[in-house]
Specification:
The complex is a heterodimer of chains A (about 375) and B (about 375).
Chain A lengths: L10 H12 L7 H9 L3 H25 L5 H9 L1 H33 L6 H16 L3 H22 L8 H4 L6 H7 L1 H6 L6 H5 L8 H27 L1 H5 L4 H7 L9 H29 L8 H17 L4 H33 L8 H5 L1
Chain B lengths: L1 H17 L1 H4 L12 E6 L7 E10 L5 E10 L2 H11 L11 E4 L1 H6 L2 H4 L12 E5 L3 H5 L9 H14 L8 H9 L6 E8 L3 E11 L2 E6 L1 H10 L4 E5 L13 E18 L2 E18 L7 H29 L6 H8 L9 H6 L2 E13 L10
Parallel strand pairs in B: 1-4, 4-5, 5-6, 11-12
Antiparallel strand pairs in B: 1-2, 2-3, 6-7, 7-8, 9-10, 10-11
Helix pairs in contact in B: 9-10
The chains are: A mainly alpha (about 375), B alpha/beta (about 375).
Chain lengths: ~375, ~375
């Protein structure tokens, strides 16, 4: 199976997968969540968190480079032994799916409160999940191409959001050292939660034909960090930190203030356009979850059944009635677990593999054939 | 293939059923597109507020008019809920473009609006003002030009701002000003002129969210200059020519004024320096001095600077006496030297602050100057 693996992902597609796996729902309340801890120091905290995310990605790269022809689902068992590896991967896959469900539901909470108060939850979420599942189940090529296609829209939106069209008062932003070094460092943890999702790097690494996959990943992380920092600066510079802290979705409130004679309600327009980005994020998370779970279930279980089970699970996840307060609690609990599992545990795997001297195969049938 | 087609049709049906336009469309006459909200104290119970909802109505002869509903509630969200219950098959999703507080409501608190102002229903770009008297009275003014008072007020606000005669404060800006430490809100004041006229005149000052005083129109124009907003300042508007340069008949347009506010604590006392720099355009000038001569122009500029300095000092003294900081001195102090800023002590420090003001004007342009007068 490994010998038949083709390098079908370009460096650009890897960049798109990482960017779209990370940027999703977090941007709507990042300024508040980090601002609660770091105050105006949020503008230093986010770049620092970006640097840490970059370091984590470097760790992922080291792990992936040890097993250049295999995905995480294949070498985790080798590193941890089969039973432990299966448990690890099972949890990994379930967490990815849980994140996909959480992202969809969180976006629905926002959409419902902001614009579609009378639309049934399922009318919005079921088609969304169905579309994402249908893309993710078709494998790495379709996933990468769909994500790449939607990514052009994402990049446009990100660029537009970084333009300071609404006046900014820098006095609202300063002083950035208000909470001291301690506050800034404490803010790094919630900032890192907004970078969950770049672990798709470990899943698609063997398919990447770029000679510099790390550079593609690093560029994505750098752009994400820049995007988060600039939008947070604009949001706090316009609303003021005190107002940001009592806002559920500061980004929407910020966009709500934009109005031209011929263009109003940028918040609603953005909400509609961002649906595609949410689809992209859910696709990447679902793809990660599906790929990892495929490595756990026995070979005799049909892929079709596995995919259908995942669909049923995901639909049940988005259909289950959860109140907004419980949803917030769920996200708050899931974020640290997911960050630890998806970002930190691969570093531990790399450490164990290095200590045990484990490495993947150095030859590849495709390479030889080429 | 067949299954795929079936799935596609099923998906199409689901999407079609989910579209609101298919089964939820209503004619505009049935919708409550609220475009103006007035907020007063409820006379029977001062704990509650009277919310006046103004929404357009199509009359039988296809003429547009406005309808007013007054609802007593604790906050705007509750008022909307009550209004929706009273108006079945309607919903209050409109574009609120104007919010007017009655004087008593503003003196009590602005919280009735803030509690639910995060609702997307409320346009953050709606203009806010305080009415002299009750907001509901103002909103019922029979205007001769139009029956849609919201449109009239909206145009009036924008025109006055464009002409440098008033400040524009939106709901969003008001929320920021009332929430951020180190700055107090200020809102334009609007009042009825006779039976069927409405006029913007001066401004209302707030301490946090409570109205504590007013500025007259001249004070507001000086305030706008200090705030760095384009304003048209009228000095000694007389009807005849005067011979003294210190009291000429002058109307000047302050173009791109820039004010630097430098506060700092010196031995526990707040010292604030205001430095106002602006170019000016003479709109109207009447004096025996010929200002085409450089010496006269410089002399006039110095006199104007003196005038602005005196007026600015008066204004700031008034703000200190009222204990309000709409210029954001506290915000500047926190931004430039946050260790010196104590939000609990700042009002006292501001009230006792030593103020120094520098005004620097630069002539930018004058209109046509008539040099044929015999006096010249």
């Amino acid at each position: 199976m490994q010998g038949k693996r083709q390098k079908v992902i370009t460096g650009w597609q890897l960049f798109c997968l990482i960017l779209n796996g990370v940027v999703g729902i977090g941007i709507f309340n990042l300024a508040r969540q980090v601002g609660e801890v770091a105050g105006r120091g949020v503008l230093l905290t986010i770049p620092l968190a970006g640097l840490l995310a970059l370091g984590t990605l470097a760790g992922h790269y080291l792990l992936a480079r040890r097993f250049p022809r295999q995905t995480l689902a294949e070498y985790a068992e080798k590193i941890l032994s089969p039973p432990l590896g299966k448990i690890y991967l099972g949890l990994y896959g379930v967490l990815s799916l849980a994140l996909a469900i959480t992202v969809s539901r969180s976006y629905w909470s926002l959409v419902s409160a902001w614009a579609l108060g009378r639309t049934p939850q399922l009318a919005f979420l079921l088609p969304l999940i169905l579309v994402c599942w249908n893309v993710a189940r078709r494998g790495v090529v379709v996933t990468a191409r769909v994500v790449e296609l939607i990514n052009y829209g994402t990049l446009t939106l990100m660029l537009l959001l970084m333009i300071p069209v609404i006046p900014v008062d820098l006095d609202y932003v300063r002083p950035v050292m208000e909470t001291g070094v301690g506050g800034i460092l404490r803010g790094i943890i919630p900032s890192l939660y907004a970078t969950i999702g770049f672990d798709v790097f470990l899943i698609v690494f063997p398919y990447v034909r770029s000679r510099r996959p790390f550079a593609a990943g690093a560029a994505a992380i750098a752009l994400i960090t820049l995007f988060y920092t600039v939008t947070t600066l604009l949001i706090i510079g316009n609303l003021g930190l005190e107002l940001v802290l009592i806002n559920t979705w500061p980004l929407q409130t910020y966009l709500h203030r934009f109005a031209l004679a011929v263009f109003e309600r940028a918040d609603i327009v953005f909400l509609i356009a961002w649906v595609f980005q949410i689809i992209n994020t859910v696709i990447v998370l679902m793809f990660t979850g599906m790929t990892v779970l495929q490595g756990v279930v026995p070979q005799k279980v049909s892929r079709r059944w596995l995919h259908l089970s995942i669909l049923v699970l995901a639909m049940a996840g988005v259909a289950w009635p959860v109140k907004f307060a419980s949803q917030v609690k769920l996200v708050n609990s899931l974020s640290p677990i997911a960050f630890f599992y998806h970002a930190i545990t691969p570093l531990l795997l790399w450490l164990i593999a290095a200590l045990r001297g484990l490495k993947g195969e150095k030859t590849d049938v495709q390479d030889q054939a080429a | 293939m067949c299954k795929t087609k079936l799935l596609s049709y099923l998906l199409l049906v689901i999407v079609a059923c989910s579209l609101s336009a298919c089964w939820d469309q209503r004619p505009i006459e049935d919708l409550g597109l609220i475009n103006c909200v007035g907020i007063d104290i409820y006379p029977e119970n001062p704990e509650l507020l009277d919310f006046t909802f103004v929404y357009p109505l199509f009359l039988e002869e296809r003429r547009q008019a406005a309808k007013l509903d007054i609802i007593a509630a604790a906050n705007i969200g509750e008022a909307i809920n009550i209004w929706e219950r009273r108006n079945p098959r309607r919903f209050a999703a409109g574009k609120v473009g104007i919010v007017i507080f009655g004087t008593e409501a503003a003196q009590q608190d602005l919280s009735g609006l803030f509690d639910y102002a995060q609702l997307p229903l409320f346009d953050d770009n709606a203009y806010v003002a305080v009415a002299a008297g009750k907001a509901s009275d103002l909103l019922q003014t029979p205007l001769p030009e139009t029956e849609i008072i919201a449109t009239h007020l909206h145009t009036m606000f924008r025109t006055n701002r464009h002409e440098g005669q008033t400040i524009l404060v939106t709901v969003g800006k008001l929320m920021t000003l009332a929430t951020v430490q180190g700055i107090d809100p200020i809102l334009p004041k609007v009042h009825k002129l006779g039976e069927d006229r409405i006029e913007l005149d001066g401004a209302v000052l707030f301490q946090d969210r409570r109205m504590v005083g007013t500025l007259d129109q001249n004070e507001l124009l000086i305030f706008m200059a200090l705030q760095g907003q384009h304003s048209i300042v009228s000095i000694a508007p007389t009807t005849a020519n005067t011979g003294e340069l210190a009291k000429p008949k002058v109307e000047l347009d302050l173009v791109s004024p820039k004010t630097k506010i430098r506060p700092q604590l010196q031995d526990g006392k707040l010292v604030v320096n205001f430095s106002l720099q602006a170019s000016y355009v003479l709109h109207s000038y009447s004096s025996v001095q010929n200002i085409t001569k450089p010496e006269a122009a410089q002399s006039l500029t110095r006199d104007l600077e003196s005038y602005l300095l005196i007026e600015a000092e008066r204004l700031i003294t008034k703000l200190q006496e009222l204990g309000v900081d709409p210029l954001g001195v506290g915000k500047r102090l926190r931004a430039s030297n946050f260790r010196q800023f104590d939000p609990l002590q700042f009002r006292e420090q501001w009230a006792d602050a030593a103020i120094s003001i520098d005004v620097k004007l630069k002539p930018f342009r004058a209109g046509a100057i008539d040099t044929t007068q015999p006096d010249r």
